[in-house]
Specification:
The chain is mainly β. It has helices at about 5-10, 45, 240-250, and strands at about 10-20, 20-35, 35-40, 65-75, 80-85, 110-115, 120, 140-145, 160-165, 180-185, 195-200, 200-205, 210-215, 220-230, 235-240. Strands 1, 2, 3, 4, 5, 6 and 7 form a seven-stranded antiparallel β-sheet that branches. Strand 2 (about 20-35) and strand 3 (about 35-40) form a beta hairpin. The longest helix is centred in the last third of the chain and has 9 residues, at about 240-250.
Length: about 250
């Protein structure tokens, strides 16, 4: 029997807007916090500005004040409901609603946005405390960036799985930040995508050096994708799950 892989319903298409005017697209996913469900996505998606120089990313200089989220409809898999969440508390766009990492702050290119508009929404959050089976994740292991390149879906609003490989030692931090590198032909619109090690089952290597047999698919959340190291490279930046967990725990 064919089924939909769970990560395919966990990635959500985002459209950043200014008063209803579309500016850009991206990807996000959900997590639970002590104050309710939150959207996890890149900081540069909600600010509308580059992380390195703070310049507007939109060609018209527009900065978003809301995000349209295409949620799964409750009880109807394969249907989606568009909900708009405000990005700022005030109309002057001075006080953001999103929450940044408690230590890294604006240096971390990921945020949590508390969700309010959840009527008729089915939630499929990632459990950051238990992000998946404790699979062996080492350089050259396959991973997938599950999102919406250029705002494109794989049918309906199911995401595209762009597959690549771990490109750095998982225990080592790139640029002294909780980042690891991947080698994957990912593109704009995939910013905010969950990066997942997904295996179809069988005998798999585990982190403790043992092997375990699985009768079906297993996965592990590696982190959140936030772009390439530069426009000439396929090396991508992934902020680690452990850092996202620190953020959610701080809420």
């Amino acid at each position: 029997m064919n089924t939909i892989a769970k990560p395919s319903v966990q990635s959500l298409l985002l459209q950043m807007q200014f008063c209803g005017q579309p500016l850009s697209t991206g990807t996000g996913f959900l997590s639970a916090s002590s104050k309710g469900p939150v959207l996890i996505t890149n900081r540069h998606n909600v600010t509308g500005r580059r992380q390195d120089n703070n310049k507007p990313m939109s060609s018209n200089g527009g900065i978003p004040n809301e995000v349209l989220i295409y949620h799964n409809v409750k009880g109807h898999l394969g249907n989606w409901n568009a909900k708009i969440e405000r990005l700022y508390v005030d109309q002057d766009n001075e006080t953001p609603r999103w929450i940044e990492h408690p230590v890294l702050g604006s240096k971390a290119d990921f945020v949590a946005l508390p969700l309010i508009q959840l009527d008729d929404v089915e939630l499929y959050p990632y459990d950051l405390e238990r992000p998946g089976e404790d699979l062996m994740i080492s350089p050259a292991e396959a991973i997938s960036v599950i999102g919406f390149p250029f705002g494109i879906s794989a049918g309906g609003l199911f995401p595209v799985w762009a597959t690549g490989f771990i490109a750095s030692e998982p225990m080592v931090n790139f640029n002294d930040l909780p980042i690891q590198l991947i080698d994957c032909r990912s593109r704009q619109g995939q910013s905010g995508s969950p990066v997942v090690a997904y295996r179809s089952g069988g005998m798999l290597a585990m982190a403790d050096g043992s092997s375990a047999a699985f009768g079906g698919p297993v996965s592990k959340l590696i982190g959140i994708y936030s772009g390439r190291i530069n426009s000439e490279s396929d090396l991508g930046i992934v902020w680690k799950t452990s850092a996202i967990l620190e953020l959610v725990r701080s809420i």
